[in-house]
Amino acid sequence: MRHIISILIENEAGALSRVAGLFSARGYNIESLTVAPTEDSTLSRMTLVTRGSEDIIEQITKQLNKLIDVVTLIDLAEASHVERELMLVKVKSSGETREEIKRLSDIFRGKIIDVTDNSYVIEMTGASDKLDAFVNALDESNIIETVRSGPTSMSRGEKGLHL
Predict the structure, then answer these.
(1) How far apart are CA 70 and CA 46, in angstroms?
(2) Which residues pair with 37 in a beta bridge?
(3) Which residues pair with 73 in a beta bridge?
(4) To 5 degrees, how large is the angle CA 42–CA 152–CA 43?
(5) Percent of the chain, pLDDT > 70?
(6) More confident: 20 or 87
């Protein structure tokens, strides 16, 4: 099962390396990882996506909690949460394909952020399924490059991940 683990971690050199090392030492895979500072400059928020059975995820969270840099964490798969991913996709767009790609981008609520004579760069945010559907709707031969952030997420409601 897919799990999104949100971690509040000290904003110090080597903290990310220790988390990644924990996963590699135990043979667990990180599907996606995003890290950014929070409103508190001493803390960063890490959003980590991994897969595993309940036992494996329990072991991962226990091991993460033992790391000195980890302040607190939550497995968002266990709670109601909001999830978004950012994607940039560069596509060939010349002649008759320009309008078709623009229409498709509009349908998926994408935003064309760069235009050249032969290409568009389209920015899109949303659930991973939506981004997958957009890429699948494009003619594969028109895709030049795709960059995705991986999901970032937070719990719904008044509760949050903080000290």
Answers:
(1) 10
(2) 44
(3) 7
(4) 5
(5) 100
(6) 87
